[in-house]
TrEMBL record:
<dbReference type="Pfam" id="PF03747">
    <property type="entry name" value="ADP_ribosyl_GH"/>
</dbReference>
<keyword id="KW-0378">Hydrolase</keyword>
<dbReference type="InterPro" id="IPR036705">
    <property type="entry name" value="Ribosyl_crysJ1_sf"/>
</dbReference>
<protein>
    <submittedName>
        <fullName>ADP-ribosylglycohydrolase family protein</fullName>
    </submittedName>
</protein>
<dbReference type="GO" id="GO:0016787">
    <property type="term" value="F:hydrolase activity"/>
</dbReference>
<dbReference type="InterPro" id="IPR005502">
    <property type="entry name" value="Ribosyl_crysJ1"/>
</dbReference>
Amino acid sequence: MRYSLLSRFRGALLGSFLGEFLGSGGLPEHVLGNSSPKSPQLEESQYNWRLSGWSEIATCVSESLIRCGRLDLEDWENSCFALKQSLLSPKGAPKSGKVAVAMLPIALFFHEDVVKLRQQVLEATATWHDDAQISEGVLAMAYAISLALSEKLDCARLIPQTIAYLGTSQTPLVQQLKQIQILWEQGASLEATVTKLHRDFQRPNQLFPASIDISIALAFYCFLDTPEDFRLCVSRASLSKYQPQTTAAVCAALS
């Protein structure tokens, strides 16, 4: 293992926060480039940015897991109830990518046992909305992180393994991931990938009458395209033009 487990945990959490920053319009060269460490401080006044509510919930979940040593829904919901309520929309369920950002600490905490990981993710996501698309998106991210932390991640097999783990067929996310696998194998550009997913899943059609979240699938694509280059894959995710904060945050967590 090139890095300790603690370093990987820190990298996933900090990477997610950094990805969210870049997706919000932060300039990559100030954070990931070759500028001096003092550059961001010198220009700090130019940025009026703070963590999204979803990342703040991730912080609450992290603190609760440390405090309780297990997933205690009552504990973490009590600590961020008002914040969670402010993120719920009367128009419907939140996007799966956003919930995935909030549930990242659970993916890290239970990464060693994929059976228990599934149980804990399903239990946690059920508190948001009874929506299979949400839990499926979080499970996909969590399983990929589990493979990475266990030194079992093979880029060529990541999507087929993830689809098998989800255990579903013909759902929007599974179809998106299958598309990503094909596009990745063909060497499709980011622009072509975004265009394809947008055409198939963002425009209402006979199969999907409503717009479907594609941030998880895009994050997988950006990670797979340059898995060894954190700077490049997160920068590209932030330029995806589709929920860039969420896409970049999930991509950074995978990286």
